[in-house]
Amino acid sequence: MTSKQSRDRILRGDPNTPLWVGMVALRLVTYCFAVVATITHQPDYQRPWLSWVMLGGITAWTAYTVPAYLRGYGRKPAIVYTDVLLTCAMLLTSLWILAPEHYILTPLITTVWASSAPVALAVLRGWPHGFAAGLLVAICTAVARGVINLDVTRDAVLLCGAGLVIGMSSAQARASAEQLRRALRTEAATAERERLARSIHDSVLQVLARVRRRGNELGGDAVELATLAGEQEIALRKLVSSGPQESGPAGETDLGGRLQMLRSPRVQVAVPGAEVLVAEEVASELLAAVGEALTNVANHAGPDAHAWVLLEELPNELVISVRDDGPGIPEGRLQAAEAEGRLGIARSMCGRMSDLGGSVELETTPGEGTEWELRLPRPAGQRRADGKGAKR
């Protein structure tokens, strides 16, 4: 098997398959015990025919669930919950199978076979469901016995304990598998980025570097072209040398890392030291809004203007500030631009933030620069990776 095939198998596979195999093994072993116990205790049954009917039901259900759990098509809530309920129903038929004087000492019709259903639910849904299923089977056992003694209590502890331990193992297996999937995706993205970086370095970056050198040599109007080529060369080198943005849980990404990609000789970016996780679509919309603000700086603040982007994570909201040292925006200029049909600010910034449930604030004074504040409430922006809000 190649490394790519192995990676694909890991990404698509069920991390709990080994637990399902163990559960099936438990079911088969306990089924054999149930068969032997039913045959052995026939003289103790007041309705032997019903014991054979129940053994047939146990056999049929075991024959169905073993391949279903092994092959995966039975690992569904409907089937596993049915497994638990059917097990409890079969267990309670012991009230009609056993003679009253045998309730205490004779094994119930399901015997230890009943323990496999809580284990199956624990593998599928985790420890709370596994514990509850074990408790339900234990209660049915007490009802069938008609008494709560040391043996019944011991069975309850073992059933609930098995559901708890197997459920915790199942949850940990899923978490570990998700971490492995993310690592494999990052590895694949890094390999692809390195391949593209080599190609870009041998072509585009070489051309930009040559344009920058030649423009400086020629002087005059070519210097501006050389400056632009130099800025793009720096930005492109930074892009190809940076690591891939890794998605967090539930399709989240680090907003700070995405904003760092906007850094250039004329744009400074400051973000918190910890990751600020937001949904992928939220990050894309915020980056587009910030990009519009930086485009306005480049187009209207003058060739020597600089911009500063600051990301803050407050207890209840995210705040992105975009400030420049340009001449500021004259009063009424934005309204005039919108009236002329130039809707960059209205649609790209204000519209995007409004769609996200946020807001845009503008502070500008002629001759003293402009500052945009993009505010996004925390419910829409999710939370930081450590689960805590930043403080001023």
UniProtKB/TrEMBL annotation:
Domain Histidine kinase/HSP90-like ATPase positions: 284-379
InterPro entries: DUF5931, HATPase_C_sf, HATPase_dom, Sensor_HK_TwoCompSys
UniProt xrefs under Gene3D superfamilies: Histidine kinase-like ATPase, C-terminal domain
GO MF term set: kinase activity
UniProt biased composition (Basic and acidic residues): 383-392
Region (Disordered): 361-392
GO biological process, one term: phosphorelay signal transduction system
Domain DUF5931 stretches: 16-180
Lineage top rank: taxon: Bacteria
Residue ranges of the TM segments: 20-37, 49-66, 78-98, 131-150, 156-175
Keywords, comma-separated and alphabetical: Kinase, Membrane, Transferase, Transmembrane, Transmembrane helix, Two-component regulatory system
UniProt name for this protein: Signal transduction histidine kinase
Organism: Tamaricihabitans halophyticus
